[in-house]
Amino acid sequence: xxxxxxxxxxxxxxxxxxxxxxxxxxxxxxxxxxxxxxxxxxxxxxxxxxxxxxxxxxxxxxxxxxxxxxxxxxxxxxxxxxxxxxxxxxxxxxxxxxxxxxxxxxxxxxxxxxxxxxxxxxxxxxxxxxxxxxxxxxxxxxxxxxxxxxxxxxxxxxxxxxxxxxxxxxxxxxxxxxxxxxxxxxxxxxxxxxxxxxxxxxxxxxxxxxxxxxxxxxxxxxxxxxxxxxxxxxxxxxxxxxxxxxxxxxxxxxxxxxxxxxxxxxxxxxxxxxxxxxxxxxxxxxxxxxxxxxxxxxxxxxxxxxxxxxxxxxxxxxxxxxxxxxxxxxxxxxxxxxxxxxxxxxxxxxxxxxxxxxxxxxxxxxxxxxxxxxxxxxxxxxxxxxxxxxxxxxxxxxxxxxxxxxxxxxxxxxxxxxxxxxxxxxxxxxxxxxxxxxxxxxxxxxxxxxxxxxxxxxxxxxxxxxxxxxxxxxxxxxxxxxxxxxxxxxxxxxxxxxxxxxxxxxxxxxxxxxxxxxxxxxxxxxxxxxxxxxxxxxxxxxxxxxxxxxxxxxxxxxxxxxxxxxxxxxxxxxxxxxxxxxxxxxxxxxxxxxxxxxxxxxxxxxxxxxxxxxxxxxxx
Length: 620
What we know:
By secondary structure, this protein is mostly beta strands. The relative contact order is 0.04.
């Protein structure tokens, strides 16, 4: 026999009517208890699951007790019902029963649906503090579970609401399986998907068929997702996209805290940032597979060799990066690279700072700058590297203990400056430059390129000098106030001395030094071939003396600005990080004074000798 139960309620009484599903005749009527505008939980639970016997029409058994009926079918309220406790439903310790709070209609059919109560119309079920509303449901108290249909809504506490078209709930595991138009709302957070599993004891909802999570600012879409309603932490995997008005995040794996609005990157991630309200704004793109991004402040901490690209040509790479997109600056730590591909200039080191405004870059700790405008790049190292943009021109400065290496020349100085608009290299404060076998010194040196492969000329200002070694104690020397050296095929071809020109050359015969040729004048032009002086033009009013080697003494060997520091010459692009000892400015000045004193002493000696010879002639 199939049974239908229908509830009734008037001003004084509440009852259940039991009907034969085949004949629709009322079998009996049972009183219920009413309180606080709903069926008392205990009473409703007791009559929620009858299980009528098939071979007795005078008794209806169910798993909580027995309902007995006396005599024929009554037309009014049946005789009082005796309830006998039945212990056939066992609940493990720590588990609780699902209770039926209300239903317009309850049906039973033990043959078609064993152990199932079919609930129809305005259904309300309760399990602990969770309430389930639906149009209809199958309730099974044996398995402590139910299946809900129609307009399904599950609430937990005062903040969590989940709606769908279909739900299966297991009371023992406290797990709900929801399908079709699923929406979970937790305060300002809404998660939508087509299939969701929600574990009440863990406050965890997850999906694997695609879903979308929205809060007040951000929208996140993924194939798989997990949301912890208590901690507000969400985890997303596969084809993850998170976006708001100015930011778009694409990732393989992403975490997101809906309370702090911070996204955590735990897989390959790309972040696009652009201010759509600013017409002059340019895009910044972040590449990282580990770190976090605060969507509220637009700040990020990036780990594991991340990269930031600003305006498509400025690249910032490092082991650890802190980046503030709103303020437009980043700090970088360990193995950093700041690369300006438009100006072909890169800065490397272990600490860096980048400011998007004026494209400011600063690098320290093993800092190196690479100017790769030419086919053979220029490498420079200093204590600190600093670069900035002026319109389309990029200026880079390396200061304190700078060392430069390129195939065309090598140099050391206190400071070096590069200028991309003309590719001129400026060596400042005690600079020394080497080209082939020649050493060039002065107060400042400017190197002008001819093209991508060749140096055109150099300009040495103040205390200019060119030195080339002949042997261990003899050096060809050119000195003057200023110097312009013209290059051909990256070798010094022609030198112009402008003011206070002096030179020392050692003519040779079959490789032997035959004398010391010393010249002085205001201006001097020296022409070289294969690194050897071929012709000298001195003007106006030059003076020249040729001393045989046997008359050459030590004070005559060096001009006043002489210095030879070949040990400090960078040998390759890695040798720029070494710091060999070099003569200080004080030591060079002391050497100049000593040479001048020697020259003065030699002149006094010669004058005294000439005077003595003159006196001897007069006495005779």
